[in-house]
Amino acid sequence: MTTPLDEATINTIQSKDAEQRFKYLVKEVVSNREIWILKDEHGCVMLNTEDEDAVPVWPNREFAQSWATGDWQECEPESVSLNKWHSRWTHGLEDDDLAVVIFPDQNEEGLIISPEELDFELKKQSAKSK
């Protein structure tokens, strides 16, 4: 079980730019062996851009939970194990032609990358930390 993040840490990390949040997410996901999504009774929350549909992901429960407001107040954070992400989610998202929004901030801004690119970065970080 991971240690909950305090508010000062959360605010500091949320104030970083998209690239810095991406690097933080990769390290946290590999370290904690889980990635966080938001779900409701219909399934995983999606964000839509002009170009594509994407699944937002977060490095910790607290960041996912902070998104469960307004239109998403009925949503619950759910962790996906790193193994399950590699074995099912990457290919499932690719097959459904979906992208991943990395750790979006409160303005719904975050890097949008392919599931394969995220998978590659997570595996690269895993190899580094062994």
Give a description of the structure.
By secondary structure, the protein is α+β, with helices and mostly antiparallel strands. Helices cover 43% and strands 22% of the residues. The chain contains five helices and seven strands; from the N terminus they run ααββββαβαββα. It has a four-stranded mixed sheet. A hairpin with a 2-residue loop joins strand 1 and strand 2 (43-44). Helix 2 (18-32) packs across helix 5 (115-128) and helix 4 runs antiparallel to helix 5. The longest helix is centred in the first third of the chain and has 15 residues, at 18-32. The protein is globular, with a radius of gyration of 14 Å. The two termini are 20 Å apart.
SSE topology:
Blueprint: H1 7-14, H2 18-32, E1 34-40, E2 43-44, E3 47-48, E4 53-57, H3 61-65, E5 76-81, H4 82-95, E6 99-102, E7 111-113, H5 115-128
Parallel strand pairs: 4-6
Antiparallel strand pairs: 1-2, 1-5, 3-4, 6-7
Helix pairs in contact: 2-5, 4-5
Q: Residue share in helices?
A: 40-55%
Helix-strand category: alpha+beta
The oligomeric state is single chain
Arrangement of strands in the largest sheet:
3-4-6-7
Number of helices: 5
Main beta sheet: 4 strands, mixed
> What's the total count of β strands?
7
Radius of gyration: 14 Å
| Distance N to C terminus | 20 Å
Run of helices and strands: HHEEEEHEHEEH
Give structural attributes.
130 residues, alpha+beta, 4-stranded mixed sheet, 5 helices, 7 strands
Short summary:
With 130 residues, the chain is of the alpha+beta class. The protein has five helices and seven strands, in the order ααββββαβαββα.
